[in-house]
Specification:
Blueprint lengths: L2 H18 L13 H5 L1 E7 L6 E14 L2 E7 L2 E4 L9 H15 L5 E7 L2 H10 L1 E4 L10 H13 L11 E3 L4 E3 L22 H10 L7 E8 L1 H10 L6 H24 L13
Parallel strand pairs: 3-5
Antiparallel strand pairs: 1-2, 2-3, 2-4, 5-9, 6-9, 7-8, 8-9
Helix pairs in contact: 4-6
Length: about 280
């Protein structure tokens, strides 16, 4: 997108923010950090009749390493929904659809995801939508080395993506960010009473016990999207009415990511970039 298109898109997102918050946001895609804009995927939902933006999600792509392997972590990022459209069945788009399309695009290899929130409903949604999420449904054991390594890199290198200042602390045993609302996300701070609750009481109890809402703490969750969770997402979260259109999108992405490269590779008489230069 050129600069004018980006500004138009961000203006639509800010209109959704204005419907939910008294003041605009000034971090991430709304701040001065050009890297955040270049490395963020925005999912925008508009009202079909009026064309008015009603919800969006901004998903930054964050670089990390696991051993010698370079990976990308998709941060579930900032989600805003116009109050008039909440409880309207939009969560399957805002939290899962873009991740699913990215998963197919990268040849269905496991995709690391992260989320930072103090809202029990979001903590539970992430834990139940994705695989091997920590903290999630299981919190009695310690996080794995991979989870801890990814979490520490996120907090070291990428906290500006989700509006957490450098002065915020991090408890690497429980993945708690202490005093988190000091890096531009101040307007998002909530009390436990005002935060949306999950239908499963364990996530409400987890947030109430682990987080200091007066100080402004967040939970950092780290997990994966893989074939098993993609199947569960398609069967449980996507409405039946949306499956045909989604199937077409997945088919096109599958051709781009899997079938087309295979056909191009088998055509030995044609050049294939640096892998098979022209004669």
């Amino acid at each position: 997108m050129d600069e004018a298109e980006v500004e138009q898109l961000l203006a639509k997102c800010q209109s959704v923010v204005a419907s939910s918050l008294p003041e605009p946001l000034d971090y991430g895609i709304f701040g001065d950090d050009l890297q955040a804009r270049e490395r963020t995927i925005i999912t925008l939902i508009s009202d079909r009749e009026s064309g008015r933006p009603i919800a969006f999600n901004a998903l930054p792509l964050m670089d990390a390493k696991l051993g010698a392997e370079e990976i990308q972590v998709v941060h579930l990022g900032l989600v805003m929904v116009d109050p008039n459209y909440r409880s309207g069945g939009l969560s399957w788009i805002l939290y899962g659809l873009t991740c699913l399309l990215l998963f197919v695009r990268q040849q269905m290899r496991p995709l690391w995801i992260s989320s930072v929130t103090q809202v029990p409903a979001v903590v539970g949604m992430v834990a139940e939508t994705f695989d091997s999420v920590w903290p999630g449904q299981e919190t009695t054991s310690a996080p794995t080395f991979a989870h801890g390594h990814v979490a520490k890199q996120i907090m070291r290198d990428h906290r500006h993506f989700f509006g957490v200042g450098m002065e915020a602390g991090f408890d690497d045993r429980r993945f708690i960010i202490t005093n988190a609302y000091t890096g531009g996300s101040d307007n998002l701070k909530k009390s436990f009473e005002s935060a949306a609750k999950h239908r499963d009481e364990q996530y409400n109890a987890l947030c109430e016990e682990w987080l200091d809402y007066e100080r402004g703490d967040d939970i950092l969750q780290v997990g994966q999207l893989n074939l098993a969770t993609a199947r569960t997402y398609l069967m449980r979260s996507v409405p039946n009415s949306a499956l045909p259109k989604l199937a077409v999108q997945l088919l096109v992405l599958g051709v781009q990511a899997l079938l087309a490269p295979t056909i191009q590779w088998l055509a030995a008489n044609k050049s294939l970039g640096s892998l098979r230069p022209a004669k």
